[in-house]
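Title: [Solved] Endonuclease 3D structure

Original question kept below for reference.
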Amino acid sequence: MRAIAVTVLLGLAGLVPADDKPERNVLRVLTYNIHHGEGTDGKLDLARIAEVIKAAKPDVVALQEVDRNTTRTGKVDQAAELAKLTGLNAEFGKAIDLQGGGYGLAVLSRFPLKGAKVHSLPGKERQEARIVLQVTVEPGGPFPALTFLNTHLQHDDGPTREKQIAKIDELFGTAAGAFVLAGDLNAAPASAPIKALAKNWAFATEPGRKGLLTIPSDTPRQQIDYILFRPADRFRVAEANVIEEKVASDHRPVFALVEWTGR
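Solution (posted by the thread starter after getting help):
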């Protein structure tokens, strides 16, 4: 599988107050499809997205539908801009070329991000290219260095989604180490891709659990955004919920607080 190096974007770590440092035995994880910063009111507003992120006080964030220097979003490097607005470190992974720039995924984190790679996922010739953005995060304390994975799967083709899940599992489903996988999986709780993931991954945001609907953001009817981890016996889920943000994007953000048990 081809792996492509991606550019590190350093956030302004000094903007995070010293007394706001996260506990090292827990990890605050957020996943958010930001719809290139365009809200349900039709306004393009990255500052609004940044406020949603900051309010959750995350340690690590998976962002989907992120633009980089495209015409439609004013030639702004959205990952870099969100790094500045939130005081976090950032990595961007390009899925496709778009309007003179790129479009894809980003990871933000309080911690330095290392070893970033983009892995291509299977898809048909005329479909939008899909990827996994892989980074290493080192929370410190009892937490080991962990592999954080961000993805956004095919939206209109179930069999392709299943192949994409199979590729993710091939790459990471049985590998040694600690892993967190987050993103817009475009898959309902009872679907084949979600059932396939459950074989090797544990869900912080349990499929089908009440209160975890994410789209459309104004009146959510579907759960398609998830946070997962493995190995299951090394993590404990302390909290998992959907943040009630109706306007900033067409998706609601998903939050999980996970504890490293180290058993």
